[in-house]
Amino acid sequence: MKTQSMLLVALASAPMALAHTIFTDFYVDGMPQGDGVAMRMNPNAQHASAPIASLDSDDMACNVGGTKGVSRVQSVKDGALLTFEIRAWAADPSKERLDRGHKGPCAVYLKKVDSASTDKAAGDGWFKLFDHGYNNATSRWCTDEIIDNNGLLSVHLPKGLEGGDYLARPEILALHAAKDGDPQIYTGCAQIFLESSGTLVPESTVSIPGYMKYGEPSTDFDIYNKPNSQYVVPGPKVAKLTARGVQSGSTSQTDGLKPEGCIMENGNWCGKEVPSYSDEIGCWASDKACWDQSDTCYNTAPPTGHAGCKLWEDKCNDIQAQCNAKNFKGPPNMGKVLTPEKKGIDVGQIMATAGGGVADDAPAPALRTSSMKKEEEKPEATTTPVKASPAAPKPTTSDSYERPLIVHEVSPMAPAPAPANHSSLSKVDAPALTITVAPSSAGAPAPTAAPQVCPKGWKCVTEVELVTTTVYVTATYDGVAKRVSVHQRRHVHRA
């Protein structure tokens, strides 16, 4: 029984390997744009939710790989409500959004650019639209507000901003390890085109990276031993806007539009209808064209997953079945849009209105939803959020906050499986999911000895044997093998 006890202790004490978060998508006036659409995020699915490695890195602008844009740019109206969503598992919004111990401020920045899809993001030109740190009246951090709002951070764009391309950058700074020199930044960028004839521009801008440094009060703050009410958010103040005089930005979007003929979306990939056919040669040619697009879909899928690729596979399987049945007129359901219908949501709490942030010592911001009328038509409804418990005293272990028991699962993002219904194709079996218990965070100091007398409210453990097992699973997908098999199958069919 000792081995079993040791394993239980190990599970209970093991921190979650990816107890972090990633900005996965955004909503415009409560309408989802689609997972990964027009979003710059870390392309590595296994590490997408990790914090930025260095405050001095270009990754600070739009995350790892964020100096390279994506193909789509999403249009938004003047004064639109932008809502950014975070997830600990990029492909699964049903799971935890952010570990409650990751306490800290949040902010939203904008950068006016010539091209949202090609601008390198890093450098000068950024201005702050909103920030929020610690609210002394409610004893809550901005991260508490986001977590309790189902991972959503909503802000209004100021009315009258100059039109054209922008990068919209939400930011979370987690301070749980800041005292140890490890402030953790989580960020990403939405590529947007602002449909506006306004003339407002910021009076000043800052550089990212550069606006936040190590060793500053905002980045090395000890949330366990200092009054949290003393915290001051990093970076510049919310930008003051001034009229340029003459509108110089573009009011008509020409780049980054959804391609014509797009019938299926997955992130920034669009599937287009395959050629029509009326004979066997044309049928198999369309079948191949469908699977070639499927390969591209899987190979370019963002960390948010490949749900659209799976739906596209159904179309390819249908074409293949028709070819096998000698029904050489198609494709079936030609031109039908396969992308699931997007439905608007109630975004819940809105952290800021156009033109200002939330004062850290002010009462909790009012709750506004996308279904409410404008302020001049109906007063805002205010609610009092649940007051969080005061910060616990600093424990003597290497981790300075309590973590819930969470067993890390293998990321749902995996290379694409071979089509399931290819009766004549070589089959690639998808690997089974493996539960992995991760060791403590890399580089963390060894735990100190437990005190002889437990502080009030704490449970002391005098001896813990930590047993961890890491299982590595490599899944491969050989798109070339699949295409060769298709060729062989067609050859057999024609014989």
UniProtKB/TrEMBL annotation:
<keyword id="KW-0624">Polysaccharide degradation</keyword>
<dbReference type="InterPro" id="IPR005103">
    <property type="entry name" value="AA9_LPMO"/>
</dbReference>
<dbReference type="GO" id="GO:0008810">
    <property type="term" value="F:cellulase activity"/>
</dbReference>
<dbReference type="InterPro" id="IPR049892">
    <property type="entry name" value="AA9"/>
</dbReference>
<keyword id="KW-0964">Secreted</keyword>
<dbReference type="GO" id="GO:0030248">
    <property type="term" value="F:cellulose binding"/>
</dbReference>
<dbReference type="GO" id="GO:0030245">
    <property type="term" value="P:cellulose catabolic process"/>
</dbReference>
<dbReference type="GO" id="GO:0005576">
    <property type="term" value="C:extracellular region"/>
</dbReference>
<protein>
    <recommendedName>
        <fullName>AA9 family lytic polysaccharide monooxygenase</fullName>
        <ecNumber>1.14.99.56</ecNumber>
    </recommendedName>
</protein>
<keyword id="KW-0119">Carbohydrate metabolism</keyword>
<feature type="signal peptide">
    <location>
        <begin position="1"/>
        <end position="19"/>
    </location>
</feature>
<feature type="region of interest" description="Disordered">
    <location>
        <begin position="355"/>
        <end position="400"/>
    </location>
</feature>
<comment type="function">
    <text>Lytic polysaccharide monooxygenase (LMPO) that depolymerizes crystalline and amorphous polysaccharides via the oxidation of scissile alpha- or beta-(1-4)-glycosidic bonds, yielding C1 and/or C4 oxidation products. Catalysis by LPMOs requires the reduction of the active-site copper from Cu(II) to Cu(I) by a reducing agent and H(2)O(2) or O(2) as a cosubstrate.</text>
</comment>
<keyword id="KW-0136">Cellulose degradation</keyword>
<keyword id="KW-1015">Disulfide bond</keyword>
<feature type="domain" description="Auxiliary Activity family 9 catalytic">
    <location>
        <begin position="20"/>
        <end position="231"/>
    </location>
</feature>
<keyword id="KW-0732">Signal</keyword>
<dbReference type="Pfam" id="PF03443">
    <property type="entry name" value="AA9"/>
</dbReference>
